Here is the input.
Amino acid sequence: MSASTTATHQPKPLHLWAAKMLPYALLCVGALIVIYPFFYMVMNSIKPGTEISHSPNALPSRITFSGYIGVFERLNILQLFRNSLALAGWITILNTFLSALCAYALAKIPFPGREKLFSLMLTTMMIPSVLFLIPTYVIMYNLGWVNTFRALIIPQAVAVYNIFLLRQFMAGIPDELVESARLDGANDLSIFMKLILPLIRPALVTVAILTFMGSWNDFLGPLLYLNRPDLWTVQLGLMQFQSSVPGENAQEIWAAITMITLPPIVLYFFLQDQFIQAFANVRFK
Here is the structure.
């Protein structure tokens, strides 16, 4: 056996093996930290009510779905889901399209003061949103939109962060491509619809996911504007299980939380490749 063959089969030093395995160990720890809250939630949703109060961290002694049955019996969960899906769906569609339209104007249409306008829009992100609650409510009340979905859909039809994200993604598209389309006689709307939107599909999916999750999980907005039970979202419906008695309705609460968490998870599961690609390709200019 030659010397080179012997050197090839020599075991690697321990410090090299540890350095190679350390990233995988850290990833496993991070995965456990992320997965455990979801596991904890599902585990408590199938526990008897007494075990949730006395041993919330232990595995269930027996599996019961009485909490899920109680959600359907005592809460109009289907109506709540329809309201939340309609609200989140309209906000997601409008926000994604209008934010992309505004981002296109800021990225590909030269006009005086474009950069200053973009900087001003970014400055508004530094203002806490809670400061706009009273002025926005007064406007919605004067318009007669309280107790309607319009009070939640219209103010969220555009988001500065989404404009920023889409604008940075469009900045990576060569200007020569847009100019050549203009030379061929295409107007800006045609360029936006037929050229830009297909090229920024990963960014659009990312904006859609973030917008859907934000509107689906929104509690304060529906609490302010939706006072009629037939308009309540799943977040407001969950309040029906609140009680002054500790541990009461624990099974229903955990079951409802689990059901409410599923739609964003399912949405991200099917669109995660586009989500990751968008952040991998974003350009900062």
In short: Residues 14-45 form the longest helix (32 residues). The chain has a mean pLDDT of 84. The radius of gyration is 25 Å. Residues 76 and 237 are 8 Å apart (CA to CA).
